[in-house]
Amino acid sequence: MPNPSRPRAALAPVPRSNPLRQLRASDLRGVARLATQATTSISHVAEGVHQSVLGTLGLPGGAQPGQARGLTGLVYQSIRGVTRLVDAGLQAGLARLEPFFGPDEPPSSVHWEREAVLAALNGVMGDRLQHDNNPLCTRMGFYRDGQPLDLANLAASGAATGKLLVLVHGLCMNDLQWRHQGHDHGAYLAQALGYTPVYLRYNTGLHTSENGAQLAAQLESLITAWPVPVTELAVLAHSMGGLVARSACQQAQQAGGQGWLALLRHLIFLGTPHHGAPLEKAGHWVDTLLGSTPYSRPFARLAQLRSAGITDLRYGHVLESDWQGCDRFLRHPDRRTPVPLPEGVACFAIAATLAPRRSPSAERLVGDGLVPLRSALGIHDDARRTLGFGKARQAVYHRMGHLALLGDAVVAQQLQHWLEPA
Length: 422
Fold this sequence. Notes:
alpha/beta, Rossmann fold, 2 domains, eight-stranded mixed sheet, two-stranded antiparallel sheet, 14 helices, globular
C-alpha cells in the first residue's frame, strides 16, 4: 500500500486564466436571460411588499395574493411585460451574433473557473435553468480530463480496461473538482489498481431521482459502447452524488434488464447525506420565518429560488415518490420510501467529522461541516431507514471537513484497500 502521507498520482496545480476569456458565445444569452428573470423576480417582491403595506391600511389587493390592484398593479405588470419583450429581443439578437464570437466550445481547452461557476449556478437553480432552456444549463455526460468522453480515442490509446470506475460529484460541483489539493481519487485508483476512471458531470439542481434515472440510462449506454468487455464496475460518489447513485441502482432494479447493475461490484459513498443535511433544513426554516408576517412574506420568494436538488437534501430523497405531490417549500414530515442498499453489491461509507473524537453530540450535530456523521453512515432512528453498512465497510475520519474527503491521502488508502481484489 502507498504511504498515506504521499498518495500516488499527484497532479499538477489547476491552471488559472482570465475568467472573461473563458466566456462562450452562448453564455451571453444565458446571462441575459438570468438578468431579465432577476428583474421580474424583484418586481414581484416589490409588488408584494407594496401590497402588504396597503393591506394593513385596509386597501384591497389584486386578483392573486401579493398583487396590487389599480394603477399600482398596472405599473408592476407593465414592468414585467417590458422585461419579457427585452428578454425576447436580447435572445434573438445575441443568437444572431453568436457566429461572430467564434466556436462555442473550444475543442481542446478546459476553463476551470468557468466550469466551477456554472456548476455552482446549476446547483442553486439548475431546475429553473432547465425549465427555461437556458444555455447555461448543464447536460449530463461522462468526461475525462474535462472533455466529453471520446471512446474512440480511449480505445486507440489503449487506456480502456475492463475495470471501469465511475465518479459522481456532489452538489454545486463538477467532474474537474475531483482534483483536490493536487490529488484525484480516480487517477490514484487507476494507477494503483488498474481502473479506467470516467467522471460524470450533471446538473445538481435537478431532483436526485431525475438525475438517478438519467444516470441509469447513461451507464447502460456506456457499458454497451465500452471498447472492451467490462468485467467490473465500481462507483465512487461524493456527497449528493451518493443519493444519485442509489437512485440509479433502485430505478435500474425496478426497471429490470439493465446490464450495468449486474456488473456493479463496489459502491463507495464519501460524505453522502443519506438522511439529509442540516443546511437545507435551515433553509426550510428560513422559508417558514419569512412567510410568518405580511411584511416579510414577499421575501420568501428569494429563499424559494433554491433548486429541487437542494430541497431533496432535507431528508435525502432518492425516489420520485419521495417528493411528488408535495410542495417542497412547505413544512412536512419525512415521507421517504425506505430504499435499502443494492443487493449483491459491496457498499461502503466514509464519513468525516470536524470533532476530535466520536460522541453522541458530535454524531448528530457536528459532522463534516455539511453532513452529520449519522447521516453519512446511513444511521437512522427508524430501523427501516438504517442502511446497515457493516463495521468493516465504514470508516470515520476526525478533524476532517466535507471537501477534504476528496484529497486526503488516508482516505485514498482506504479506498484502495476496499477495492483491492480479495
